[in-house]
Design brief:
This protein is α/β, with parallel strands linked by helices. It is built from nine helices and 14 strands. It has helices spanning 2-10, 32-42, 57-60, 68-77, 113-121, 142-149, 188-192, 257-271, 289-301, and strands at 15-17, 24-28, 51-53, 82-87, 104-108, 126-127, 155-156, 169-172, 179-182, 200-201, 224-225, 235-239, 249-250, 278-281. Strands 7-1-2-6-3-5-4-8-9-10 form a ten-stranded mixed sheet, with helices on both faces. It has a four-stranded parallel sheet with strand order 11-14-12-13. The protein is globular. Bound molecules: threonylcarbamoyladenylate and magnesium ion.
Length: 303
């Protein structure tokens, strides 16, 4: 499996890999053909840049300029669900297609042991967006990837269910101050502790720096309604912390935001079924991983 994966990467092919956040569609980031292959499989607009995965901080430093803050954050949070957007180094060999022509790149070290081993064994960095077709729910199991792509991908590596269950937090450190481009698996509160100035959040309607922030992005095929207290007729009810006795599923009966994040996409998929006319979701606290959960839900709810 490992030799086959490395061999496919060398030939510019795409392999689905597990990470602690979601599964990724992975190709050699220095190989334009491999990168183009990813865009084609996803049906993703080519202006939407990809996250580059590396084995460790030392490796990442070869490709981007690390400020002191970037260095401290990476040392503390990697491997883990944090992506840093940094200025590309002048001699950076990463495909311009992967960073969509920008002079910055998004880097992270994923925490999944299988993928970390592969990254250590492979000579180049790996570009990997979430392994879903554009505008559909991100995959948190190998079965999800198989259902979306089947035999379109030569190898899907099964690393079990994703522990975190939603994508990495994206922090832009390429400008004057830190800017949160996407809330995700690393809570913003934990990042803020590293800065004296407040981390800015990009506002809805502002220039889209992370095109994955397009308002409608994570979409089930039926309408989704947030902050619901009870289901309306025909709706499925996705609860949190047992707020509604008539729920179909509960993201976390004990009210754990970590557990809710890990269950989110899987449960949205389960309830995205013909027998329901919509999905109503209970209120989720707007703090810690709840910020990212609400962000994903509001994109799914946007029409
Ligand atoms: O958890 C994750 O981050 C997963 C796993 C597979 O690692 N990957 C993931 O990738 O979510 P993707 O491609 O679905 O989302 C990448 C996001 C996009 O919103 C993209 O626009 C943004 O990262 N991005 C990539 N490079 C960027 C850059 N140079 N500047 C700003 N945003 C960037
Ligand atoms: Mg994605």
């Amino acid at each position: 499996m490992r030799a086959q994966c490395l061999d496919l990467w060398r030939r510019g092919d795409v392999v689905a890999i597990p990470t602690e956040t979601v599964y990724g569609l992975a190709a050699d980031a220095t190989n334009d053909r491999g990168v183009a292959h990813i865009y084609a499989l996803k049906g993703r607009p080519t202006f939407n840049p990809l996250i580059i995965h590396v084995a460790n901080l030392e490796c990442a430093e070869k490709f981007a300029e690390f400020s002191k803050a970037a260095y401290h954050l990476a040392s503390y949070f990697w491997p883990g669900p944090l992506t840093l957007v940094l200025k590309r180094k002048a001699n950076c060999p990463i495909s311009l297609l992967a960073s969509a022509g920008l002079d910055t790149i998004a880097l992270r070290v994923p925490a999944h042991p299988v993928t970390l081993e592969l990254l250590k064994a492979y000579e180049n960095p790996i570009a990997a967006p979430s392994a879903n077709r554009s505008n559909t729910i991100s995959p948190t199991s190998a079965d999800d990837v198989r259902a979306a792509f089947g035999s379109d991908i030569p190898l899907i590596i099964d690393g079990g269910p994703c522990e975190v269950g939603l994508e990495s937090t994206i922090l832009d450190l390429s400008g004057d101050g830190p800017v949160l481009l996407r809330p995700g698996g690393t809570p913003i509160e934990a990042l803020q502790a590293f800065f004296l100035m407040p981390i800015k959040r990009i506002e809805e309607g502002a220039i889209i720096k992370a095109p994955g922030m397009l308002k409608r992005h994570y979409a089930p095929s039926i309408p989704l309604r947030m902050n619901a207290l009870t289901p309306e007729s025909g709706e499925a009810f996705l609860d949190f912390g047992g707020q509604c006795p008539h729920h179909d599923l509960d993201l976390s009966p004990t009210g754990s935001l970590e557990e809710a994040a890990a269950n989110l996409f899987r449960m949205m998929r389960t309830l995205d079924a013909p027998k329901f006319k919509g999905i109503a979701v209970a209120p989720i606290p707007l703090k810690e991983l709840g910020l990212a959960i609400n962000d994903r839900l509001s994109r799914a709810a946007a029409s």
